[in-house]
UniProtKB/TrEMBL annotation:
<keyword id="KW-1133">Transmembrane helix</keyword>
<protein>
    <submittedName>
        <fullName>Maleylacetoacetate isomerase / Glutathione S-transferase</fullName>
        <ecNumber>5.2.1.2</ecNumber>
    </submittedName>
</protein>
<feature type="domain" description="GST N-terminal">
    <location>
        <begin position="45"/>
        <end position="129"/>
    </location>
</feature>
<dbReference type="GO" id="GO:0016740">
    <property type="term" value="F:transferase activity"/>
</dbReference>
<keyword id="KW-0808">Transferase</keyword>
<keyword id="KW-0812">Transmembrane</keyword>
<feature type="transmembrane region" description="Helical">
    <location>
        <begin position="6"/>
        <end position="21"/>
    </location>
</feature>
<dbReference type="InterPro" id="IPR040079">
    <property type="entry name" value="Glutathione_S-Trfase"/>
</dbReference>
<dbReference type="Pfam" id="PF13409">
    <property type="entry name" value="GST_N_2"/>
</dbReference>
<dbReference type="InterPro" id="IPR036249">
    <property type="entry name" value="Thioredoxin-like_sf"/>
</dbReference>
<dbReference type="InterPro" id="IPR036282">
    <property type="entry name" value="Glutathione-S-Trfase_C_sf"/>
</dbReference>
<dbReference type="Pfam" id="PF13410">
    <property type="entry name" value="GST_C_2"/>
</dbReference>
<dbReference type="InterPro" id="IPR004045">
    <property type="entry name" value="Glutathione_S-Trfase_N"/>
</dbReference>
<keyword id="KW-0472">Membrane</keyword>
<keyword id="KW-0413">Isomerase</keyword>
<dbReference type="GO" id="GO:0016034">
    <property type="term" value="F:maleylacetoacetate isomerase activity"/>
</dbReference>
Length: 337
């Protein structure tokens, strides 16, 4: 063996050991939702929230904290579309071994799943928070129905789009993902092939980074997925408009702002920032949705939870997408045609 082959073998051995150690530090597994009383995490504040600026589920939890008036320490956790795969870093996996955001930590005990966080905050966080849930059981059931519609499943984020508005979110967000990923170095995206539990994500982001919006939008399966999301979301918005008309607003259940409005704030925001809202609202039947969305944005919680936590990469991506739609008819046709 020459000194060169010996060095090569040593390097390969070193890389393999590094990979195996890193892999074992980044192992993920599913978690059950709700409060985990048996887990104790280091903390400095009574409430600590681990969340991402762009993540739909994270936004719901920031909004509920703002609505309940609960102070908390904020840990901003990146997803690859906002910079890096921080959710599968060893530090965050100690907080939530599923590798998903958000996680709320109360006195060191984590609470998993965004909807469990919403109800936990409404039930425990502050004396005012109880008002986010109706006392009347029938109203409570109705609130839960609207909450359920906004869920994004951890197992299959796009399951059952006809029943869930939340399942339409990934497909509608796809063009913004493609434009955002331009700002992320390729080497960071490729790390996902080594460590991310869902290899479809690095594959999608690598292709988006290499080929760009025009090419990605011309791929038939991606177009079909996006159009299915769009068409089902239109149906969900029509149901929302009918509901708002029947209750006379200003909120989904009428006079009382509830957890259902927290979820739907984030759905409408995503539909808006991905360039779809104006397209949908050309339909006059959806006018109540516009009034409702304006009222949501005027609440104090919106500034605290959404505006003040905006992410620069996402803002650039949204501006890029709007420009591309305005200047490239092929892109506009792929989206709206
Ligand atoms: N059902 C979960 C879904 C959480 C989820 O899917 N979070 C996404 C962001 S919205 C995530 O952390 N993805 C990790 C990744 O993209 O690598 C919840 O509601 O909390």
């Amino acid at each position: 063996m020459t000194p060169f082959t010996i060095s090569l073998a040593a390097l390969a051995g070193f890389l393999l050991i590094w990979f195996l150690i890193e892999k074992s530090r980044r192992r993920t597994h599913p978690v059950t939702g709700g409060l985990q009383e048996n887990i104790n995490l280091p903390h400095t504040d009574e409430f600590e929230l681990y969340a991402n600026a762009f993540s739909h589920c994270s936004r719901k939890t920031r909004l509920v904290m703002a609505e309940a008036g609960v102070p908390y320490r904020y840990h901003s956790i990146d997803l690859i579309e906002t910079g890096k795969y921080e959710t599968i870093g060893p530090r965050y996996l100690k907080v939530n071994p599923s590798g998903l955001v958000p996680t709320l930590v109360h006195n060191g005990h984590p609470i998993y799943e965004s909807d469990d966080i919403l109800t936990y905050v409404a039930d425990h966080a502050s004396p005012d928070a109880g008002s986010l849930v109706p006392t009347d059981p029938a109203e409570r059931t109705e609130m839960n129905r609207w909450l359920e519609s906004g869920v994004i499943s951890s197992d299959d984020p796009m399951e059952n789009m006809p029943a869930r508005a939340g399942s339409c979110i990934p497909g509608l967000t796809f063009p913004v993902f493609v434009t955002a990923i331009r700002y992320i170095p390729l080497r960071r995206i490729l790390v996902g092939f080594l460590f991310h539990p869902d290899k479809k994500r690095p594959a999608f982001f690598t292709a988006s980074r290499l080929f760009g919006l025009r090419t990605m939008l011309s791929q038939k399966p991606l177009q079909q997925m996006m159009h299915a999301s769009r068409d089902h979301m239109r149906g969900h918005l029509a149901q929302l408009a009918q509901k708002l008309e029947s209750t006379q607003g200003p909120w989904i259940l009428g006079e009382q702002y509830t957890l259902a409005d927290v979820t739907w704030s984030c759905i409408l925001l995503r539909v808006d920032e991905t360039g779809w809202l104006d397209h949908f609202l050309q339909d006059a039947d959806l006018a109540p949705v516009r009034t409702y969305y304006t009222a949501l944005k005027n609440r104090d919680s919106w500034k605290a939870a959404i505006t003040d936590k905006a992410h620069p990469i996402v803002e650039k991506a949204e501006a890029d997408l709007k420009k591309a739609i305005a200047t490239d008819s092929k892109i506009a046709k792929a989206l709206y045609g």
